[in-house]
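Next up, a chain.

===
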Amino acid sequence: MTTPIKGGSSFTATAIWSAGSTTHLKPNRYALLHTEVESSHRHRGVGSAVVRQVLDEIRAREGTITAMCPFVADYLSRTTAHTDLIDARHPGYSDRTAAESVRTKATG
């Protein structure tokens, strides 16, 4: 996928999401685990653009999401455009702080 970013340039990105062991709960549920952007492209809207395209693709597949990634949780907390995709039974984390605190405890 090619996505325009701030400043008029564009990037090509491959977005990977994982249904992992959650598929038995609901066949079309995606656990969004991690978002990473090269340091040279940070703070230019690249991460948000990738997450937005992944969420739009999940919507097209009539899927739901579980937000495990701190960046995705933060993105979702700042917009209502994709709240309909959040899985009611397994929503994941509501914001970046909650997601990061769990990761800190796990690695800590």
The longest helix spans residues 46-60.
